[in-house]
Amino acid sequence: MSEPAAGPATRPSGWRLGVGGWLGAAIALGVAMTAALSLVWTPHDPAAMTMADRLQGPSALHPLGTDHFGRDTLSRLMAGARVSIAVSLVAVGLGAGVGVPLGLLAAARRGWIDEAVMRFNDLAFAFPVLLTAVLVTALLGPGAVNAILAIALFNIPVFARVTRGAALSIWKRPFIQAARLAGRGRPRISLDHVLPNIGGTLIVQGTIQVALAILAEASLSYLGLGSRPPEVSWGRMLNEAQTFLFLSPRLALLPGLAIVVTVLGLNLLGDALRDRLDPRLRPRPGDT
User: Fold this and answer.
1) How far apart are CA 112 and CA 193, in angstroms?
2) pTM
3) Tens place of pLDDT for every residue, the chain, 288 residues?
4) Does 66 map to a domain?
5) Distance separating alpha carbons of residues 43 and 120, to the nearest angstrom
């Protein structure tokens, strides 16, 4: 009589993300809701200047004070969340939209196609994300659209490599061999069998890349290569606050804290999802 498997006792059940995972999810949800709210309402117009109210401290009218142009800091933080989330999501989505098909193609075809994709990845990884983004925006000019393009270009090889590595392990599975014997072509197998089985890995990677994209967008905006006025960005707020760092340090601390908390929340969520969606921790058929 065989002994019962010990594995299921150590596997999580349901959607138990742990304290860190739920904290990360709460932070990510809070930032997303703030960004969505800023589309329809902010306490004040983020671009409205009132020089008589410049550099005011927190008050009932301005809970987080005002900046050197008399603009409401809370309203600008809310609008900055909208820009950061929008740029990062679109950039990562574009990167995944190109990188995932490339990775699936490389894993399915192998040979010279696989070699070409991997050499492209090696070339892209030779340049850090910020350097790549600076080069692209320097050539095309500053702006949110060019920042999205720059960040998306770096995400393509990331998703291509992750997809290829995960897909190669799936192509060795018996059910893939059965599908091939049934006469299904490689593109159909990639879409119907391989992609659904690596979806968890791609979700985790996407969460991490969104956090990195927020950092990249803030860095570009800080350097003057990202969002342009009157658009509000956390990185541009940091850039404008550096002159008043000793006079009004909160102008730099608040957007910096917003970036740190958002990235921390996404990383916590990504780590929890990795643990939850790891195929080795999934219950097997017959487990009780």
Assistant:
1) 23
2) 0.86
3) 334 433 333 344 445 778 888 999 999 999 999 999 999 999 999 988 988 889 999 999 999 999 989 999 999 999 999 999 999 999 999 999 999 999 999 999 888 888 888 888 888 777 777 787 778 877 888 888 888 998 998 899 999 999 999 999 999 888 888 888 888 888 888 988 999 899 989 999 999 999 999 999 998 889 888 888 788 999 999 999 988 888 889 999 999 999 999 999 999 999 888 888 765 555 555 444
4) no
5) 47
Domain range for 197 is: 18-38+71-281
Total domains, the chain: 1
Asked if residue 52 is part of any domain, the answer here is no
- Cβ atoms of residues 160 and 121 within 8 Å: yes
Query: What does each C-alpha distance from 215 to 120, 134, 141, 220, 287 come to in angstroms?
Result: 24, 13, 19, 9, 42
Q: CA 129 → CA 133, 140, 215, 220, 226, distances in Å?
A: 6, 16, 10, 11, 14
Calpha distance 129→113 (Å, rounded)? 25
Domain contains 179: yes
User: Is position 235 within any domain?
Assistant: yes
> What is the CATH classification number for the domain harbouring 159?
1.10.3720.10
